[in-house]
Structures are given as structure tokens and as C-alpha cells.
Amino acid sequence: MPVSRCRSILAPTVIRRQLERLDRLPLRPTTARLALNAFPEDSAEPSPELLASSRFPTIAESDPGWVLALTRSGTDLEAIKLLEASSWWSATAPSGPAADALNRLWRHSVAVGQAARRLATEAGEPDIDRIARAGLLHGLGLWAVAALEPEWLAEWMAEPDGPRRRAFELQTLGTEASNLGRTLAERWGCDPLVADAAWLHADLLGSMSEASVDSRSLGLIQQAFALAERTPWGLYSVEAREIGGSEPRLRLLIAEVQVRCTPALIEADATAHEERFARSNARLRRQMAELRVEKAANDRFLKAFVDADPAETADGWAERAALSWCEVAGVATARVVWTGPGLESGHEEDPRRAERPATKVLALASRGRPCAEIHLWLDPEGLSESANYASMAPAWQAWAALVADRTQLAAKLESVARGHRGWVDKEEPRVRRAKLDGLAEFAAGAGHELNNPLAVIVGRAQLLLARATEPDTVRSLRAILSQAQRTHRIIRDLMFIGRTPESRPRFCQPDEVVRASLRDIKDEADTRGIRLILKGGEPGPKVWADPDALRHLADALIRNALESTREGDTIQVAVAGGLEEVSWSVKDNGRGITSAEGEHLFDPFFCGRQAGRGLGLGLPRAARIVQQAGGEMRWHSMPGQGTIFQVHIPLLPPPKPPSPTVGAIEVEPAVGRNDPPVLKS
Predict the structure, then answer these.
(1) Contact 32, 199 (CB under 8 A)
(2) Where are the domains of the chain?
(3) Which residues lie within the region annotated Disordered (predicted)?
(4) 500-650 maps to which CATH number?
């Protein structure tokens, strides 16, 4: 065909460049109108009831632009976005030969699609819609060029000769129209059967059917193409339209095409102004739907934030956040996992979720460092693209950062407190030892400096007492002796607490030690009107223990009870034990011990009595004795009802006597008191 016949057509390079940028086919105005009417006013999703009750299914499956969107692999058809982005045929195609060519191509494509549907139904194919759609799009290359330059299609149809048509295609497109259709189908991600149908639909002999991914389905489309060529809208063979025009199947196909293709593809009442308004309507509906989804996400976040407890733990927050995410459309289940340092959850992993990894993971950060992850398991249909959660991600991240910071600060505070308690626990014994060491130094110096003057005072007082005859003088000297002896005992107690003497165990009777202590204190108790009671049976066995330490212990406990008991009350002392343990208890009916006094009960120089009644060294001295012996001392007191002290001291077995050796000398006690010992060899 001479090039002069293509004056109204764009230059070949311009068409090729536009084809490279083309990403879809225009829609029929009727399809766009019905689709928009199928959308409720407050939704961006079409109503299934309206779609089923209207003519939309019949119209849509005859619209190449709509069917092309359905055949794209890997994506779900979002009608609202398609209506927003797609232009209309009426706005691009003028009237005249170009409009006639478009209507003819449309009716031919519908004829192939309907014939393929009927043949697939008769053959029992499982996916009839797929074959019908591929048949409708068999002329994809012609549709793509017609969308850009309708006059080209009119020029192409004006040339009936097949070789000249191919030369025209090569001259204007740089390739054949069938090969262009295959290229576009592959580039647009269509069903592979669409690419095969666009490339091999006219291969009626099947010489290249082996190159198809589905030769059986391609064969049905080729048969449908041959049948459509016998309709009044055949594109290639005039002879085919003149054969079998009265065949019932052909008449039925012609009638079906006429019904489906009324009104025409190019509608006179569809204007560019209406197209712009319809696409703006679709865009606004989509934006409103996204805003509603965003508002719902904001509302869920605010509700979760309002219901939050300021003292909520990190695990509690993660659980409530996951429940909030489960309310998002398309989310089957959700989980929030802390990943920051010191935030790891102690919950065990659900084995069912471990088998199926999360569909989507949203990372949250605190101060630029990862702190948590939101794991989402989506429904089979997935999370709707309109559910844009990106706007809420910063809010969740800020909240997670606050919870993470609070949790980490609480952990640091607990660590500091725990470290301080540990330091106190370690420092208290050291301070106590330092106090005792200082006390020992003081006691040693005081004992050395004061004992000599005390000895002089006691000696002179005793000498004067032996010579005194007047009663007042005798009383004064005895007071001097008493206070001097008391001072000596204070110095002795100080030295005992500062440096407890080494234990010197030997055979003794602990109950006798208690009785001796009671006898020494009895006069003072009688003077105060306090009754002493000893509970115990016959004298116990002799045991291996330090009687001096036991005497100090008994004196300290009984004197402490004596100082705490009021006139007329009773002190009960109970002794028990055997060869393995010494068990004593001292109970008084005094004023008792408060909780504040109990914290310092065994501190030196702490005394709950008024000044002048002691230095508070008795119980600390008793505690040192029990501690040195490896025993235990317990006490129980109720303010106003008295106090009881219980002492348990384990006893060591006595040492075994040494075995006699050859040449050893044995000393045998003398029979008489003044007889010298007898030596035995």
C-alpha cells in the first residue's frame, strides 16, 4: 500500500514510542457508568448485589479494557482504581471510518470470545472464563494501536490483501500486529494464554501450536476465530463469510453478538467532560475510602491509648496492641514482639504460628534503634491496599518507644536498687567489724588506763571498810566498792565484745551454770520485787562446752530480763538439752520490744532503758557468744506483754583420750588430799 494513504496517521516512530508508554486499554462509557452506579455512595468497593442484578456482567465481559484488567496475573482487580486511571473510547475515537473500524473490530472480538466460551463449555473445560477472555483479546495488537490512532485501524481494514496488510504493519509499527499483541500481553503481565491467542489465533493449521503453554485451549480459540471469520464482521477472509451463513450455530453467534454490541462501542452521548467527571468521581471515592480506613485506624489507636494503664508492663502492652491490630480488616491474627535490649518477652512461642511465618512484619524503633516488631498473619485475600496503615506507623512507633523507655528505666532503677541493697548487705558486716575493732581498741586502752586506778580505789576502799565503825561511813565505802566493781564489769564487757576470747571447752553442766547465775542475781531480784523461776528437771549430764562463755550468756540474758521486768512480775528460765545441744529460754513479763528497737537489739551501746540503767552491751555480748559457738538465738516480743529469748547451741563431742604409748608416764591421783601424785610407768 502506498505511504500516501497514511497522511492522517502519526509518524511510525511516534506510534512506537506511544505504544511503549501504553499500559492499558480504554473503557467503554457504558462499562464505566454501570461500574460507578454499582458503588454505594459511602464505599470504594462495588456492591455484589448491584453487580449481579444489573447488566454489568454482560457488559463487562464484552469490554476489552475491562477484560484486560481481569487477565493481568499477580494482581487483584481494583475497580475503583481502574475507573480512575482508564480513559474512555468515546473521548479518543472520532466518528466516521475510524469509528466503523472500531465497532467492526469490537464485534469480531466479541464473536471470538463468545464462540470460544461455547466451544469450551462443550469440551468440558474447567476454566471457561479464562478461554473466553483470551478469545476476546486475540486482537490485542490492533486494540492497542487503535487506542492511540483510530485512523490507523481504518487504513488497515481498508486494505483487504493479507501481504499488503503485513507490509503496512511492518512499515508503521516496525512489527506485525499479532507479534505486537504478544509483546504487550507479556509486558503487561497478562495470562500467557492471552499472549498465545494474540500471536497464534490465525494459525488454523496448528503448525505453531506446540509453542503455546496450553495448546488445547489455544485450539479452541483458533476454532472460535475461524467461526467468527464467517460472521459479517470477519476481518481477513471474505470467502469465509459467504460459506455456511445459514448454519444454526453461526446464526446463534451472530444474534448473540448483535445483542451484546448494542449500543455501539463509540457512544455519541459520552463526552470528554463526562469522562473527566467520572474519573474524578472514582478518585474521590478512593480517597474517601482511604480516609475512612485511616480514620478507623486512628480511632483504634486512640481507643487503645485511652484504655492504656500508665503502669502497664511491656508484655501487657504488646498483648493489647496485638488485639488492636486483629481488628484491622484482612488481619487474621497479630503479635507484637519486643526485640530491644532488656525487653525480650518471656512468653513461649505458639507452635502453630511458628510453623507459618508472618505474612507481614512492621518494625518499630526507639531512638533510632529497633525495639519491637508487629507480626501480621493476613487472611487469604490479604490486607486491602486501601487499608493504608503507613500513616499510623509513626504513632505506634512513638507509643512503643515510650513503653520501651519506661520499661528500660524501670529495669535500670531496679538494678540500681538491687545493687544498693547488695552494697548495704556487704557493707554492713564491714561497718560492724570496723565498729567492733574500734571498740576493741578503745576497750583495750580503757582497760589498761582504768584498771590500775580502779584497783587502787577498790584496795583503799576495802582497807577503810575494814577499819570503819560508823554506819554512814560503812555505807559510803560499800557504795564506792559497788560502783568500782560495776565500772570493772563495763570495761570487761567492752573488751569481750571488741575481742571475744577464744573458747576453752571442758566438761561442765550447763544447768548448773544457769543455777549459779540465778543465785548471784537473786539478791538483786529480791530487792526489786521480781520472782525468778527455773524450769528443768534433775541436773543434766556433763557436756563438752565452755562454762565461762555459758556463764556470760546466762548472766546477759537473765540480767536483760531483770532490767525489763516491773516489780511484782516473774522471770521464767527453762533449761533443756542433752549431749548434742544446749537449749535455754528466758521469758519476762516486761514492757516488750518495739519494731524500731528490734532493728538495733544487738547493736553495742543501744539500750531501750533510760540513762543510768546500763550501756546496752548485754545482748550484743550474748549474740557474740552464740555466734562464736555456731548456735542460734531467736526472740519474740509483744509490746506490753513481755519478751522471750530462745538459745540453741550445738555441742561438739569431747576429744578422744590419747592412746598410751610405750615408755609413757601415767599420773595416778593420790588417795589423800595432800598426798603427792603417784607416777606409773
Answers:
(1) no
(2) 3-274, 308-389, 412-495, 500-650
(3) 657-681
(4) 3.30.565.10
